[in-house]
Request: fold
Amino acid sequence: MRPFWLTMTTMTAFLALPFPDAALAAVASHDTIDLTHSGFGIAAVAVFVIAYLLVMGEEFLHLRKSKPVMVAAGIIWALVGIAYAMAGDTHTAEQAVRHNLLEYAELLLFLLAAMTYINTLNERRVFAALRSWLVSTGLSLRAVFWATGGLAFVISPVADNLTTALIMAAVVMAVGAGNNRFIAPSCINIVVAANAGGTFSPFGDITTLMVWQKGMVSFSEFFHLFLPALVNWLVPALLMSFAVPNEQPQAVSEAVRVKNGGFAIIGLFAFTIVMAVCAHNFLHLPPVLGMMTGLGLLKVYGYFLRRDEITNAIPKIRGPETIGNDITRERPFDVFDSIKDAEWDTLMFFYGVVLCVGGLGTIGYLAALSQAMYVDLGPTWANVVVGLLSAFIDNIPVMFAVLTMNPDMSHGQWLLVTLTAGVGGSLLSIGSAAGVALMGQARGVYTFFSHLRWTWAIALGYVASVWVHIWINGAMM
Reply:
């Protein structure tokens, strides 16, 4: 067997074959170099493509999406490090990866705080109480279609679109059990509404959060997207509503009480968002500082809430002769349960994406892509294409790539790409986390092909929303 060091030497020499000597000399001054035509660059692209094919096949392979991209990130940066080390530069690659890690750390902590609040509200049965109220209202199926879509549009700017979609889909499944003509279009409506609602708020989607934290769009400027986002939802909703039977569903009675402290936590969450906005807008500090302070307040409040529940817990007796070990108590509140239940696979996937895209950017591919899209094609058409790409590829890597390219665009164009990246995923059921989750929740009823039947209507909404943005925000373009 060939010695390990000889194998690695041979492999490195092979990768370096297309690597021009002039480029090797260029890094002596610690400048980034173009590795796009080198063996290192080509190998990095191949690794990323393979990893993302595995991500796209998650539903069939049952391989969590974070695993392949985390491995790919390590391999890509190893290739970058070897390339720069061969050129005698031991600093540029390190500085680049540390910059990407800092960006990821800010988003990780921000999202962790937001997810903890959402999980806590779920544990306090706030969302269950909302679902219970909707189920017991006695609305017609068409009215439920509009109500769930409207609430998804309104809630998703604060809660993430995945949580919002799951809550509203639970209502649809409960009200229209067995009525596929109602469930399928209602699920599509929820996906479109949740994705559209998430675009006019920094808290509605990871992509909007990235744009806000990067400083490309201020907090107040996001609200310029309200009307385009509303049009994006209303156009397909109106067309689909005619296919929803206007029947009265079977009456369902379900009562759920919000647990102690639920409404106070809603107030704390609102105050946390205010702190994040004020930290960014007035103190010029990263918004994550406000979010983590708010998480600290939640943990302090949770301490008193837990003490109260432990002190006042009343044993539930299973029978008149029950004694000792047969007494059961409801589990008292623990904020660390909410932290534990955060979407860690998504957070780790985000790590892999940030590092993979950052590595490809260091190699030089994003600069070439930026030239092809934003210079040759033009920013408006390029941003429309970004939205179409989001239907096939998760909008997180797409938006992070745009931010890493950092093309010279007006505020209106940054708002346009925020809109298109957010709503473009609605074109296909696999284009957003909300769509993928609902295919699992309404398995066999809401499917890729049932969504595809209405893609033409969603595309009309997509075109209409872009047109409305250009029309009403033309002065910013």
Confidence is low (pLDDT under 50) at residues 1-30, 316-328. The chain has one domain: 103-246+254-476.
